[in-house]
Design goal:
- The complex is a heterodimer.
- Chain A is built from 28 helices and 5 strands.
- Chain A is mainly α.
- Among the domains of chain A are: 160 residues, no CATH class; 222 residues, no CATH class.
- In chain A, the strands form 2 sheets. In chain A, strands 2-1-3 form a 3-stranded mixed sheet. In chain A, strands 4-5 form a two-stranded antiparallel sheet.
- Chain A starts with 7 loop residues before the first helix and ends in a 6-residue tail after the last helix.
- Chain B folds into 2 domains: 163 residues, 3-Layer(aba) Sandwich (Rossmann fold); 66 residues, no CATH class.
- Chain B starts with 20 loop residues before the first strand and ends with a helix.
- The chains are: A mainly alpha, B alpha/beta.
- Chains A and B meet through helix 20, helix 21 and helix 26 of A and helix 2 and helix 3 of B.
Chain lengths: 604, 254
């Protein structure tokens, strides 16, 4: 950090206008795009703070904040002096936000004067009303200019705040929004824990936090985060510093703790949380399977849904009394075993022809196979066996002798999914460290050299397909038993894509990454047909999936929770920068007094 | 096409005993294109031999056929007196043939140790693997310092060490090296050849494909020259170095 201090006025107005207008323009385009896509209108129904703030406005507000932050970021380069964040940066944010607001200003004026609802369905009075909050054009325009400039400034101020303040502000806001989004889940859980009174206190009757509770929640979240500051990191470091029996002991304790929570929690949860978690679990199974194929063996399989379908259909045919073909109905457990074998065979059958292809060709061919399987199940030709487009209904639940699990029993479904997820995680984990796992990694890195090392690449790749297929068939069987029916259209290509996004966003080749990815994407946004916590998104979730995928590929290709290997490889050239940030983090604790003295800019 | 001939009919043409690895009238094709034409080669234990030739003369194909990545359309590949035309790569690797690929081609995202262990992929004898690791640490102290580092982050010279180490981990009898000096700085090329000589001096047979004919012949015992898939010269290294035809064509002298 330099000690150079220029005259404030000259420095403050010495802006990089080009940069401001560039980010401002992108901000404006994003605002208009999000508005016209219909996100604010759709999400307006979901209240964060009742009646002050809806998720619709949040979907617009974060944009100037982000671009304000981005526009005022200085990239720290080794050997170059970086000016300390200050007033100038805050103004950069303000101007960026202001520039961005002109997007909405033009949109408001446009909607007021022209009618092009024909191509743009969301163009029109409802959106206009929403944007102007029903207070007229003038208020709307001035309001957005002020709001956007303020939010841009707020985003930029994040640079100026001391680390402690930044932590307080961000955890208060994010914590409050998370609590509001989690409303349904918390509501559901509270009944089990007899805490309805708390829920009634926090949440307004018709959804969302009340004004008062929002403030309280924000304060509590900030306080928790300040108190917990560094402790988690420290505990983690302590844990990894342990060696030998002590570490083993703590591992067992941690594992037992996690297991206990996961096993006990559903008992207190109602149908909502359990079915949400069951969805997450089914996609976790699928993602773990695809993770082996794509993440470990490096085979880009875009038709993965085929194995999901094979598992689902074989279970349905074997167990449903209404299945048109297979007469003697058998129980779920033997049916599952047969499904697994069939899926394995399907893995071999699809794998064998495509295994010799590479890269793009392989992706395209697997994409084709995925669709072929679905169309086969749908075809009239095979209708006597699989029921065609009408599918197979009346699939009974899982009979385990002592209890029957069906869709009407979300708790049972959850435990079933949990058992299989645990099994799948164990399998993935063991495989990763095995000889086969090593051969997959070698093939992913360089197939020819792997071959030269004596690895039978064809067999190894086929094994990846088979293991992936088996995990997918678990998911298929469970889903069918849960829903009680199976239709070809449950196995659209979209399912393959979403599983792939879960794996990529979570972190390819990383088991914790895949788990986190399933929770974040399927739990919050929802699966292709399954609603998540933010069910108001509806089809818009696909937009988010796409945006998230692009963002992750550009900025964090190793995923949310990368395997240690991937992250190093992809950020080689950022290594020095990382060292910088690390140094900053370490300084956080000790330099608090001096840092807060420097942070006056924040108040402006 | 394999003709499972009587394996006892070992070549007794030389006084050096049985050849470790040999080609008997090997032909290969890529599609319809004829690459190697009736190539005869033999590598004896402990030898350092090199294969020279211009671009597209079939040098790399020779290596691939020796290792089993390319199947001969006729002729025999013989390992320890046994015809191995139909044996997979894994069989040849576990019986003492290993390749150091062109440009090193490490598994870049894997650590140095993982690379080395993949070299021992076909082995199950833990004690022996450990022993060989120690041997490699002795040979390349630098490698030991970088065991946990991703191999893609190493310098060119270090990568070469890991590539050779990885090949040695299969405990080979003969090391096939594809252009070991390619992509290395001049100073490293010299060092690299010294290294090859050193490994050879410890008893390892080395079969080297090289463009740098001068350098390769200076350390080799024998050499072949390939031209459009045919062996045009086959002599001792000294004789090849002195051969005027050879000097004109490959050593850059008029």
């Amino acid at each position: 950090m330099t000690e150079i201090k220029m005259a404030p006025a000259a420095k403050v107005l010495d802006q990089d206008w080009r940069n401001i207008f560039r980010w401002g323009a992108i901000c404006a385009i994003t605002l208009v795009f999000i508005s016209l896509v219909g996100m604010p209108a759709k999400l307006d129904l979901r209240l964060i703070i009742n009646p002050t703030l809806s998720l619709g406005y949040v979907s617009l507000f974060w944009i100037p904040v982000m671009f304000g932050f981005v526009a005022s970021t200085h990239i720290a380069l080794e050997g170059m002096e970086v000016s300390r964040p200050g007033m100038r940066d805050v103004l950069t944010g303000l101007f960026t936000g202001l520039t961005g607001s002109f997007g909405l200003v033009l949109l408001i004026l446009g909607m007021n004067n022209f009618d092009i609802t024909d191509p743009l369905v969301n163009w029109g009075p409802p959106l206009l009303d929403l944007l102007t909050t029903g207070r007229g054009i003038g208020t709307g325009i001035l309001g957005w200019m002020a709001a956007s400039a303020f939010l841009g400034m707020a985003g930029a101020s994040l640079h100026v705040l001391t680390p402690l303040l930044r932590r307080i502000v961000s955890s208060a806001i994010l914590g409050m929004i998370s609590i509001a989004i989690l409303e349904d889940a918390i509501d559901d859980l509270s009944e089990g824990f007899r805490l309805e009174w708390l829920v009634d206190l926090i949440y307004a009757k018709r959804g969302g936090l009340t004004n008062k509770s929002a403030i309280i929640v924000a304060i509590v979240m900030a306080a928790v985060s300040v108190l917990a500051q560094g402790k988690v990191k420290k505990a983690k470091a302590n844990f990894f510093a342990l060696e030998g029996p002590a570490r083993k002991k703590w591992s067992v304790v941690l594992f037992a703790g996690t297991a206990a929570v996961v096993i006990i929690l559903p008992m207190f949860a109602g149908g909502y949380v359990n079915s949400l978690l069951a969805n997450v679990g089914i996609f976790l199974l699928l993602a773990l399977g695809l993770n082996i194929v794509v993440g470990l063996a490096g085979i880009l399989d875009l038709g993965y849904v085929a194995f999901f379908a094979v598992g689902g259909y074989s279970t349905a045919v074997l167990t449903s009394p209404q299945s048109p073909w297979f007469a003697p109905e058998i129980g779920f457990v033997p049916a599952l075993l047969v499904s697994v074998v069939l899926a394995g065979i399907a893995g071999l059958a699809i794998g064998a022809p495509v295994i010799r292809m590479r890269g793009d060709y392989l992706a395209i061919v697997t994409l084709g196979f995925g669709e072929i399987i679905r169309l086969l199940f749908m075809s009239d030709f095979l209708k006597p066996y699989f029921g065609g487009a009408q599918g197979i209904v009346n699939v009974p639940g899982v009979e385990l002798g002592f209890l029957t699990i069906s869709g009407t029993d979300p708790k049972g479904v959850f435990y079933l999914v949990l058992a299989f997820s645990a099994l799948a995680i164990y399998i993935s984990w063991r495989l990763q460290a095995s000889r086969l796992g090593r051969s997959w990694m070698a093939i992913r890195e360089d197939e020819q050299v792997a071959e030269a090392m004596g690895i039978n690449t064809v067999n190894s790749k086929l094994m990846a397909f088979v293991v992936g297929a088996v995990l997918a068939s678990f998911a298929g069987s469970i889903m069918v038993a849960r829903v009680g029916s199976v239709f070809p259209n449950s196995f659209m290509i979209l399912v393959s894509i979403i599983i792939l996004v879960v794996v990529i966003v979570g972190g390819m080749g990383s088991i914790p990454g895949v788990i986190v990815g399933s929770f974040v994407l399927i739990g919050v946004l929802g699966g292709p047909r399954q609603p998540g916590l933010l069910q108001e998104f509806g089809q818009l979730k696909l937009l988010i999936y796409g945006a998230l995928l692009v963002f992750m590929m550009l900025k964090r290709p190793e995923g949310l929770v990368p395997s240690a290997r991937r992250s190093q490889e992809l950020h080689q050239d950022e290594f020095l920068q990382d060292a910088w940030f690390k140094g900053d983090d370490e300084a956080d604790g000790s330099d608090e007094q001096t840092a807060s003295a420097e942070g006056e800019g924040a108040s402006v | 096409m394999s003709t499972e001939t009587d394996t006892s009919a070992s070549p007794s043409s030389s006084d050096k005993g049985q050849a470790l690895l040999e080609f008997r009238k090997v032909n290969t094709h890529y599609g319809a294109v004829h690459i190697l034409k009736d190539v005869d080669l033999e590598i004896y234990p402990g030898e350092l031999v090199c294969l020279l030739g211009g671009n597209a003369s079939g040098k790399t194909t020779t290596l691939k056929a020796l290792l089993g990545m390319v199947k001969p359309t006729s002729g025999e590949v013989v390992l320890n007196g046994e015809v191995v035309n139909n044996q997979p790569i894994s069989y040849r690797v576990s019986n003492g043939v290993t390749m150091v690929p062109e440009n090193r081609r490490l598994f870049k995202r894997l650590s140095v140790l993982e690379n080395l262990m993949l070299g021992a992929y076909l082995r199950n004898d833990k004690a022996g693997i450990k022993e060989d690791l120690e041997y490699i640490y002795d040979l390349f102290p630098r490698v030991k310092e970088r065991l946990t580092q991703k191999s893609g982050t190493l310098s060119g010279g270090e990568q070469q060490m890991v590539a050779i180490g990885r090949a040695l981990m299969s405990r080979p009898k003969v090391l096939l090296m594809d252009e070991p000096s390619m992509g290395l700085a001049p100073a490293l090329v010299q060092q690299n050849f010294e290294l090859i000589e050193k490994i050879n001096n410890e008893g390892m047979a080395i079969f080297m494909v090289e463009q740098n004919a001068n350098m390769a012949l200076s350390i080799a015992d024998r050499g072949w020259v390939l031209q459009t898939g045919m062996v045009v010269l086959n002599d001792s290294a000294e004789a090849l170095l002195a051969n005027p035809e050879m000097r004109a064509a490959y050593l850059g002298e008029a």
